[in-house]
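hey so i finally got around to running the thing on that chain from the lab meeting. sorry it took forever, my laptop kept dying and i had to restart like 3 times. anyway pasting the input first so we r on the same page abt which one it is
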Amino acid sequence: MSAYFGIATPQANPTVEAECRLLFPWVATPCVMRLASPEQDSLTRLRHYLQVLRGAPAQFDTLRLEALGFACTGTSYLVDPAAEAAVVDEVSAALQAPVVTGAAALRAGVAVLGARRIALLCPYPEALCVALRDWWKRAGVEVVALQRLATATADTRGIYALTAAAAAAPLAALRQLPVDAVVISGTGLPSLSLLSAAMDSAGPPVLSSNLCLVWEMLRQSGHHAWAGAEPRQIAGWRARWEQANR
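ok and heres what got predicted. didnt touch it at all, straight out
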């Protein structure tokens, strides 16, 4: 019998579904809802997605979810933490299932590694990078370096045109720094090939938004055997990724 996990992803994001399908065990089924917003300004749109999340109980109707993942990391860097917590609690109560945000999942992944000094790789516009730094500072984590990946447009939708190959060299450079972990923030940036390669090479561990989101959903829903002790240990994900890329 399948276990159903809800995923709320930005409307134009093509990456979350593909990566989550490989990160979750085959017996788990990710069920996706689109976060649709009419806002044209990128940062306003990201803030609006939190309100769109309130529609999740209606979107999933009678489908019983193990957990719901809010797969838009950037939103958390921009909104008031208390306002975010209120929406998360409201939707969780309605679904009777834990709701996990991408940013909170990254923070949990960094914490379980015991990382206090991190480097960040992100495809965000400058204003969102500033908010990202501040968010991690408030979390008590030192950001040693932040490498921004350039996109073709200032709109955050430009993230979805990026490839893992574009991030490989910047990631390798960050892994040369004296940090405890490198964090890839942004659910729209393909990360699984980067994570797999990093696990086979020397340097600090690498975490990504999608990896940590799935791991924290598994943990919070009680599927600890699937989750493993830390995000990179999600059961079987590398084998599923390799099979999909033969």
